[in-house]
Structures are given as structure tokens and as C-alpha cells.
Amino acid sequence: MLLQIPGVLKPDEVASLRSQLAGATFEDGGATAGFAAREVKRNLQVPQNSDLGRKCAAVVMEALKRNTVFFSAALPHRIHGPIFNRYDVGMTYGEHVDNALMGSPATVRSDVAATLFLTAPEEYDGGELTVHDSYGAHRIKLKAGSLIVYPATSRHRVEPITRGSRVSAVMWIQSLVRGEMHRRMLFEMDVAIGSLRKQAGTEKEVATLTSVYHNLVRDWSET
Questions:
Q1: What's the topology of domain 3-175?
Q2: pLDDT tier at 145, thresholds 50, 70, 90
Q3: How would you label 110-145 residue by residue, b for 16+ Cβ within 10 Å and e otherwise?
Q4: pTM exceeding the 0.85 threshold for the entire prediction
Q5: Which CATH class is domain 180-220?
Q6: In terms of CB atoms within 10 Å, which of 6, 130, 134, 146 comes out highest?
Q7: Is 112 helix (H, G, I), strand (E, B) or coil?
Q8: How far does the chain reach from its first CA to its final CA, in angstroms?
Q9: C-alpha atoms less than 13 angstroms from C-alpha of 123 in its C-beta half-sphere
């Protein structure tokens, strides 16, 4: 499931993160790539264990916790990241699939990947996140503060930057529900339940569907 979630970060949170990251020390992004991905990864990133990296990550994590759409879509159990990266002119991340397991010593199975855009689209050219699924290639370039989530099993790439710089945060989620189709079904059901709740006279239907939803989560979830 490829899903855009607008406004995950508030404008003042975006501005604060951008200000802090402007003075950050970035390292070669290949340091955290898998063997195959390292060959095609050309970007910079803030060390995840640095004081600034942890401080900025806490802001993003709080924003994710309050976002009900993200929780419904990803059903997060563990999250690796966020890691803050930057692409300058000429930088790119060639086509690849993310590692199945992330992090050390705590390991996260990467079921879902997510990119949180911190740079406004008009600030740079190129830099689209291109994600492949059964419907073809999708080129994604969102407003600052918006998030894209997609299956970590998808082939994807970051197009070369031709003007400006692109700053974002990336993360990988181990979902409570491993199966992509199961997660999609649960998300669609949750959205439908929310719509029914707004309609008068649907209390019985909402209660029934809510019961089915939670019983499916109970049956499909892994902790």
C-alpha cells in the first residue's frame, strides 16, 4: 500500500528541524547501507546516535504517535530510525530494495518504509522518490511535513538532484501485522468505520465492524 499522509509535522516543527539540521555534521550515507545498496547510494546523513540525531528523531516520533492515519496504515510495533539525510546536486540513490532486517543490537524487520519530506518541492529539482508496484513506477515529491509510506519490499530509488538540496527523514517499521494485504484490508476497514461513525443511525453497524476489526488484528498480529 502506497499512502501519502499530509501534515504529519506542523509548520513550526518543520522550521525547527530544518534550522537544527542546517548546522548538523553529515556523514557519507553509505555507512548504513547494505552491501548491494552501498554501490548505488550517494547521499549524506546525520549519524543516528549523535545528540542532534536523537533530538530531531524525538520530534518526528512524537509526531508519528499523534497521527492516527500513520498508526492505522502501519500498525507499528518497532521503528528503526528516523535517520535524517540530505541529497545535494548530483546525489542520488539508485534502485534497490531495503534490507529485510535493520538495526543492531535490536533488530527490526522492515515491513513498511517511510519518508518524511522536510524540504518544500520548489526548493529543489529532481529528488523524487520513485516506488515500483504492480501498477508501475510512482514518482513522489511531497510538501514539507508530509509522509509517504510504502511496502519495504518495493523496489525504489531517489532521482538525481539537479538543483538545490533535498532533506528528509527515513524510517522502517516492523508492523504488528506482517502481511501487506492484511494491513491494507485493516486500513480500509478502519477508514470505513470512521466514515460510518459520522453518520447518524449506524451505531449497531459500527459496533459490529469494530468487533470484526479488532478480532482480525488479534488473529493476524505478532508481538
A1: Jelly Rolls (2.60.120)
A2: very high
A3: bbbbbbbbbbeeeebbbbbbbbbeeeeebebbbebb
A4: yes
A5: few secondary structures
A6: 146
A7: strand
A8: 22
A9: 15
